[in-house]
Amino acid sequence: MSKAKPAFLVFDIETVADGRLLQQVRYPDEPELSPAAAVAKQRAELLEKTGSDFIPHTFQLPISVAIAKVGGDHRLQEVVTLDAPRFRPQVIARQFWQGWERYGQPSLVTFNGRGFDVPVLELAAYRYGIPIPAWMRFNAKSWEDPRNRFNSSAHIDVQEQLTNFGAARMNGGLNLCATLLGKPGKMGTQGHMVQELWEQGEHQRIDDYCVCDALDTYFVFLRLRVLQGLLSLEDEAACVTAAQEWIAAAAETRQSLREYLDAFQQWRAVDDEAWPFLDPRDAPQD
Fold first, then answer.
1. pTM flag (> 0.70)
2. Residue span of the structural domain in which 66 resides
3. What is the dihedral of CA 122, 68, 261, 174, to 10 degrees?
4. Number of compact structural domains in the chain
5. 224, CA 20 to 30 Å: which among 32, 181, 245, 268?
């Protein structure tokens, strides 16, 4: 494990809805409604109205944050999670923001983090009274503000880079981008399962899932750096191999990483004469 400070913090979060807050804000006339019942009622209403039962980020609490520390050479240093095994939202938020400062404010790297992960952590700081003046630089020039959408030195949202800052949609999301590179993507656990898993007490399973998403985000980030001309394909391959070795060592004590490693593949360039179809009969004919 490198002793150098990371240049990038590649991270992913998992959240659960705050049923007590939902009851107070959405159902103030139903004080008898339990937090769990408020969550269930809100999900049912959203599903009927929108086709999705995901409760907005403003009602979400962070219960897992996995961070891949990455050096200036783009090599993976280690992957950590915050406040395990207790997973207290207030401690997670405090450790995240204080850690970012302690490491010298490295660039944050996310996949759709500008639309979800970072706002959740900002609202957690608001809720728990955690000062983050280095992040919320009120008097900074707009282009130097870490929260500026186009300030990619402070926060690199890979999804925004790949969608022209929201001009296109990334249908398939992180799973698609990871799969294109031969990385595991979604395995047994998926995001829509987190609320139920939390309520069932499967907190470690959620944390393990978060680690796998952070690793997928790291590999997708490496390919973005190739597109940006900041890594060659040979450099990327060396970083991927080094990361695979770290995962193999960590997998000796973590079952989830053993499963991740089993599904892990090295990316191979497609031959110019090959058509990207599963069945060659689908290829256009001359």
1. yes
2. 8-266
3. 40
4. 1
5. 245
